[in-house]
Structures are given as structure tokens and as C-alpha cells.
């Protein structure tokens, strides 16, 4: 049986849009009327020179902390899997993660996350935006904020990229008031990465250049008379699409040697990690990889046995590869999910949604390697030390890559706090 047959949940929360890149590139323009898309926060130029990257590995559906980062020996809640030692003395993780255990000296764990929402959509909103919100478009997601702060003016690639396996997607409306320039662009890990990046048969480069010269002439003539943020957004999207066409080989993992491709593995997840490594090499500020389907209300242990194995080896190789290439010192890797799973094992041998006490893992730059923040009780029911939530995490991610999370964006004459000003980072985790 293949991993794809272990998809437990068919909800929209676990789906990936497969919209065509060129056709959907301008999605979300209507949300930005009246804002200035291209203003920069204080200190962005200085920060951008550091060439930092953030890679989020999003385990969509709710990874169980018991079968990953915070295993328990209490059989009532801990389940059948044991814990194993790691390369950091005293830190033990689930036996399902033997390869990751060998990379723990590059990593840190947060075992004391407590949030309020156990609905997939709403929980996704808060962990991605670092705010308490019920709308996915009210606040910009982490990727948009990172891209806004770290993207250089002359950067030829999108600063906020989501990977997928086949085909290509479009822009997602997840940048809120920062505008579509910083919304995510979906690219593939197969079929050359991005579809529709070659000129159609019969269209010469010369003819195509003339088309774009005419488009630029008309747009500039109109812009001389009319000030419009929507026009600015269209111009930026068209020009970025052209730069993507010129850089399309960067998204094609077939250019890697056979040995490297085999090291990452033939799984969908491994291919996305390899693409992410290529993008980090190009100093893309933010890359998100999705590994979907972690909503195990039934047969939790069987599903985790297969899913965690699919995650473990490619992830561990990704961390080690970044380290060996000297990229980990400027890359923050976050293994994120929307909430944990219940200590109570239900009648279907599953675990339900549990936001009260759960965990995430991080690796790379800006954090104390080998650190464990917080803890839960022996049964994993309650946080007993250093409770944190999505707002603390958001500040921490930004601070780790040198972004002043206490700063503000100035958009269209208005100021917006970069992160929730009532909260701050996990100071003891930061390097």
C-alpha cells in the first residue's frame, strides 16, 4: 500500500490548489485598493543584506506531539511508541524519528504551546499570522511578512514561495494589506517546476519582446496621468512572471545529480525539500512546503507510523544538507502544524484535535541549538512550564532572522504593527 492510500481526511483543509500559474498570477488584486504596495519598513535594506531564508514545513491537519516531539511513557495517553535518545543529551523524541534524532544538535523544540482554537481553518489562520483572527485575509501570513522585510528590490524571484509536486498554482490572497507582491506563489517540484514558462510555438523572442515593450509603453503613458495601486500590482506581476520564465531552470530538480535526487528520495515530500534547498541557495526569503493529511481521528498509530516515516528521513537529510553546504547558518527551518492531538485515545484508536498543549520543532539560524522550551505533565494534558502561543511564536520566528518584530509597516499613510504588540518573542530560545 502506498502512502497516498493513507489519506484519512478529504476536507478542503488538506487540499492544494492546482490553478495555472500564469492564469491566476494576479489573484487578490481587489484586496489592495487604496494601499501602497511598495513601501518598505524601517531597516529592511540592512536586514536584506543578511540574505536570510525561512523554510516552513507545514504538517497540515495536526501532527501528534506524542508521536513526534513530546513522547510520553504513560501508556494511557502516550500510546505504543517509545522514545529514543538524540544527539543532544537528555532530549528524547519519538522512535518514529530515528534520522531526525541524529540532527537534534541543529534543532530546538517548543513543547509548551497552548492555543484556543481546534478548528482547522481558524487554527491555520492564527499560527500563520501570529494574531487572533477569524479571517485568513485580515493579517498577512508569516511568509508575506518575511518577504516584505527580507526581499531585495532587485530580487528576480518571488520572495514568498509555496512548493507543490506537479503542475503549478497561482498567487494566494495571504498577504492582506501588504499587497499581492508579497502573497505566496505556488511552484511545482516536478514537470520543470512552473508550467507555461516557454513561449508557444510560432512565437519568437523578438515578437514577444515587442509585445511587452508595447505593454510597458501603454502602461507608463497611463500611469503618468493616473495613480493606481492596482496598476502597480499588475505591472509588478507581469514583470515578475517574465523573470520567472528566465529563471525557470532553478525550479527544475532534474538538474540535480541522480545521487542527490536519490538522497532526498522519490516521495512527494522529498522532492519538495530538494526544491526548497535549491531556492534557499538562491536566497529566496521564504519557502513553504506542505505535507498534508495529518488529521488522524481513526487509526492514529498506524497512520503516524507511515506518515512520520515519510517525513523523517527526507527532513533529516534536508537539515544535514543545508548544514553541509553552509546554508543552515542563514536559514531558519520551522516544522509547523495548526494544533496537536488529544491525550485521550478515542474509540477508533485515533486522537482528536487538541490545542491545549502541543509542540513544534525548529532548526537553523537565530535559535539556541539543543534547546527545549517548556514542558507538559506526565500524561501530556497540560502545560506545566513556559506556556506560549501563536503570538509568541510569530515574534520568535521574525527575531530569529533579524526582523524587528516590534516594528511597524507604513502602508498608504497608515501604520500596522509587524506582530502583535502586546506580546514578544521567546527570548531564551533566541541565539
List its traits.
alpha/beta, 431 residues, eight-stranded mixed sheet, 12 helices, two-stranded antiparallel sheet, Alkaline Phosphatase, subunit A
Please tell me about this protein's structure.
The protein has 431 residues and is of the alpha/beta class. It has a single domain (3-7, 22-429), classed as Alkaline Phosphatase, subunit A (3-Layer(aba) Sandwich), CATH 3.40.720. The protein has twelve helices and 16 strands. The strands form five sheets. The chain has an eight-stranded mixed sheet, with helices on both faces.
Secondary-structure element order, as H and E?
A: HHEHEEHEHHEEHHHHEHEEEEEEEHEE
How many alpha or pi helices?
12
Class derived from helix and strand content: alpha/beta
Based on the structure given, which CATH architecture is correct? 3-Layer(aba) Sandwich
Q: What's the Cα radius of gyration?
A: 22 Å
Largest sheet: 8 strands, mixed
Strand share of the residues? 15-25%
CATH class: Alpha Beta
Number of strands: 16
Shape: globular
Strand order of the largest sheet: 6-5-7-1-8-11-4-12
Ends distance: 44 Å
Poorly predicted ranges: 10-45
The percentage helix is 25-40%
Mean pLDDT: 85
- Compute the number of structural domains: 1
Amino acid at each position: 500500500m502506498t502512502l497516498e492510500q493513507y489519506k484519512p481526511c478529504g476536507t478542503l483543509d488538506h487540499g492544494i490548489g492546482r490553478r495555472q500559474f500564469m492564469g491566476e498570477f494576479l489573484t487578490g488584486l481587489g484586496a489592495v485598493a487604496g494601499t501602497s504596495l511598495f513601501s518598505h519598513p524601517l531597516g529592511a535594506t540592512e536586514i536584506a543584506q543578511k540574505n536570510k531564508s525561512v523554510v516552513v514545513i507545514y504538517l497540515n491537519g495536526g501532527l501528534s506531539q506524542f508521536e513526534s516531539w513530546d513522547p510520553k511513557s504513560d501508556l494511557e495517553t502516550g500510546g505504543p511508541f517509545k522514545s529514543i535518545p538524540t544527539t543532544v543529551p537528555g532530549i528524547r523524541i519519538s522512535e518514529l524519528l530515528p534520522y531526525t534524532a541524529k540532527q537534534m544538535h541543529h534543532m530546538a523544540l517548543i513543547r509548551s504551546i497552548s492555543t484556543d482554537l481546534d478548528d482547522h481553518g481558524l487554527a491555520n489562520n492564527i499560527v500563520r499570522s501570529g494574531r487572533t483572527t477569524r479571517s485568513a485575509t485580515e493579517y498577512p501570513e508569516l511568509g508575506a511578512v518575511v518577504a516584505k522585510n527580507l526581499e531585495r528590490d532587485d530580487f528576480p524571484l518571488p520572495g514568498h514561495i509555496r512548493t507543490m509536486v506537479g503542475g503549478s498554482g497561482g498567487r494566494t490572497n495571504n498577504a492582506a494589506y501588504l499587497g499581492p507582491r508579497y502573497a505566496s506563489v505556488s511552484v511545482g517540484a516536478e514537470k520543470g517546476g512552473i508550467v507555461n514558462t516557454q513561449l508557444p510555438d510560432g512565437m519568437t523572442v523578438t515578437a514577444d519582446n515587442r509585445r511587452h515593450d508595447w505593454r510597458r509603453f501603454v502602461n507608463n503613458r497611463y500611469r503618468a496621468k493616473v495613480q493606481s495601486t492596482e496598476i502597480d500590482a499588475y505591472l509588478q506581476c507581469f514583470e515578475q512572471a517574465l523573470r520567472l520564465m528566465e529563471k525557470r531552470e532553478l525550479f527544475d530538480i532534474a538538474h540535480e545529480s541522480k545521487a542527490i535526487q536519490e538522497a532526498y528520495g522519490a516521495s512527494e515530500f522529498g522532492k519538495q525539500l530538494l526544491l526548497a534547498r535549491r531556492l534557499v541557495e538562491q536566497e529566496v526569503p521564504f519557502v513553504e512546503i506542505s505535507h498534508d493529511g495529518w488529521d488522524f481521528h481513526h487509526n492514529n498509530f498506524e497512520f503516524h507510523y507511515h506518515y512520520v516515516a515519510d517525513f523523517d528521513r527526507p527532513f533529516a537529510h534536508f537539515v544535514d544538507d543545508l548544514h553541509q553546504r553552509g546554508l543552515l547558518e542563514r536559514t531558519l527551518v520551522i516544522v509547523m502544524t495548526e494544533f496537536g492531538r488529544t491525550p485521550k485515545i478515542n474509540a477508533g484508536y485515533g486522537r482528536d484535535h487538541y490545542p491545549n498543549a502541543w509542540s513544534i520543532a525548529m532548526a537553523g539560524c537565530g535559535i539556541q541549538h539543543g534547546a527545549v522550551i517548556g514542558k507538559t505533565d506526565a500524561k501530556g494534558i497540560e502545560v506545566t512550564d513556559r506556556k506560549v502561543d501563536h503570538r509568541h511564536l510569530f515574534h520568535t520566528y521574525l527575531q530569529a532572522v533579524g526582523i524587528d518584530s516590534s516594528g511597524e509597516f507604513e502602508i498608504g499613510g497608515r501604520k500596522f504593527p509587524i506582530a502583535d504588540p502586546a506580546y514578544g518573542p521567546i527570548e531564551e530560545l533566541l541565539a
